[in-house]
Amino acid sequence: MSINLWAVLAAAVSSFVLGGLWYSPVLFLKPWNKAMGRSEDDNGHPARVFGLGFVYALVAAIVFAMLLGPTPVLAEAWKAGLLVGFGFVAMSIGINYQFANRPIVAWLIDGGYHTGQFVLYGVILGLWH
If you ran DSSP here, which 8-state letter would residue 24 be given? Predict the structure, then answer.
């Protein structure tokens, strides 16, 4: 199956742009840290965190592009992103968070981010063939 590697790369980068805003002090950094019982000092080494984070985002973008096919229609691609992000990723995180006894606020923030991530993937892949 043929996929647009440039669009996939752009989609992976978009998750970093979204994440940078989502987990910033402007939006959800403080409530997320509180819900997770963390402080800003608890972050891991930036090279490891961002390096592995990008690898995971890239793999997710590649697999999502493969699911959509080589020329997805925009209207269907962003809807697929919404379904995958919320229905698969956020719900899977929710299962883990329930068993780990994490607060619903953490799930709302993390699940919301990943839903937005896959919607962005769908928009980018739906526009860029």
Answer: S
What is the extent of the structural domain holding 84?
5-127
**What's the token pair of residue 14?**
């978009």
Task: Output the pTM of the full model.
Answer: 0.93
- Please list, in sequence order, all residues whose beta carbon lies within 8 angstroms of the beta carbon of residue 115, skipping any fewer than 6 positions away: 82, 85, 86, 89, 90
> Which tens digits make up the pLDDT trace of 21-49?
999 999 999 999 999 998 877 766 677 88
7-34 burial, b at 16+ Cβ within 10 Å, e below that, comes to bbebbbbbbeebbeebbeeeebeeebbe
97: number of Cβ within 10 Å: 19
Q: Which amino acid is at 95?
A: I
CA atoms within 13 A on the CB side of 114: 22
Tell me how many domains the chain contains. 1
Reported as a single tens digit per residue, the pLDDT across 59-97 is: 999 999 999 999 999 999 999 999 999 999 999 999 999
HSE on the CB side for 83, CA within 13 Å? 9
- Around Cβ 101, how many Cβ atoms within 10 Å? 6
